[in-house]
Every structure is written in C-alpha cells, then in structure tokens.
Amino acid sequence: MTTLAIPRPSLFRRAAAVLAVAATAVLSACSSMGAANGSAAEPAIGLYELRIYTAAPGKAAALDARFRDHTVGLFQKHGMLPIGFFHVAPTAGQPIDDRLFYVMGYKDRAARDESWKAFAADPAWRTVYAESQKDGSLTSKIENIFLSATDYSPMLNTKPSATPRHFELRTYTVTPGRLEDLHTRFRDHTLRIFAKHGMTNYLYWRPVADQPAMTDKMAYLLAFPNQEARTNSWKAFGADEEWKKVAADSQKTGPMLISPGGVVSVQLTPTDYSPLR
Known about the structure:
277 residues; alpha+beta; Alpha-Beta Plaits; eight-stranded antiparallel β-barrel; globular
C-alpha cells in the first residue's frame, strides 16, 4: 500500500506567507500602474459649473445629438470633467420643458477658462458647430452658474446606476443673515435624515462669489430610484418627528427661507450620454 506524505503544518505556514507577500507585491504593482496611467481616481474638483441650455423650438433632439456624438468627447479632450447631463422630467398636463441641465467639474477657474478657450478654438468643434447650426441655432438661451462644494458635500461618485435614476436639483434662498444657519442644519441633521428615508445625497454647493443672482442661495442634487420613490421619500421626510423638531428649533428666531420662492425644485432625468445616471 502506498503511503502519501503529508506536509507538516509549518511548511503550510511558510508557503502561505510566501504567497501573501507575492500577492501584495502584485497588487502594489498594479496600483502603481493605474496611478501612472491616470486611472486611479478622478481629478480634484475645485470648481463646478451648472450650465442650462434652452433648446430652440424643435431642436432638442439635435442638441442632444451634438452633445452625445461630439461635445462631451471634446470637453474631455480639453481637460474638462463632464459629470451629469439631464432633461427636465415631464409633468402631466404641463408643456414639455426643453431645458438641458448639465454639470461640469474643473480644477479651478483658471483651468476652466483655459479649457473653454481651447475648446472654442478647436477646429473639430468649429466644424461640428457650423454644421449643426446650418438651419439655425440649436439653443434659444444659455445660462451658467459657478459653484463650489460645501464642506459637508459627499465625495463625488459618478459611477452610473444599472438602471437610470430620478434626480432633483433644489435651490434655496434664505432670509438675510441666515445662510450659515441653513448650512449648519444640513451639515448636522438634514443629510442624515435624507439618507434615512432613501434619498441619495450627491452634491451640495455654495455659489461662487460675485454672482448677484445667487446671493443668499445654496443648491444641491439628490438621487432616487424613480419618481415614485422620490414622492414617497419626501412624504416620509416631512412626517419624520426628528426632522419636525430640527426644523422647529432652527426657526425659533424666524423663518429660514424666504416666502414665496424660497425653494425651487427641478426634477431631472439623465440623458443616455450622461456619466451620472
């Protein structure tokens, strides 16, 4: 009868140790290669820009096609970070809102201006632009707002969801002198209670200075699995006893938001070419 030799436990331990060291070395090397190729992480964002394009009558599909087929790639070519592109979610009984909202990220204002200058001068963009405008401008209005992330804004995550989600952009206007109180309420309470009720906190912003139309305002972006979930989450949030107490305590000296117009909400659906979905 043949007897099999069974290695001693000490030999197993030594072999396992060698394999662990080797695995660590391989992982370290792969990590270094990723960093060298610039794929380890997205660049730091010091400035966000919210741009709002109103499509000219009958031009919404052509505007989307230009972004999908050309503009987004040219943005990336010139060092910009496209974050999210959104249509306004339709509302039953209301006319279609042909605005396109999109968010861009940059290192800082100087980098932003240099990138847009290079983009505008790019022969490829000039050709695309001229060709797309042959039958008239694709837009009737273009607006933009410069924003910086608050200290409590979650780390940006542009990983797309397997199923496109429903988003909401909210802008608050406070009564004079109450802006920091509002930020404190969000930092200490609101984000946590939002998450408790199934809302995904994405970005919280302060408008960059020297934008008179954005005085005493803050803006933020939320995500939901779908529009019905959004309705249910807000209903549960409004009924939350902790939130009721936080809201009451924070307004003992008077209302925090102006009325009317203190809250402007735009519900959004991501385009098929949006990185954030």
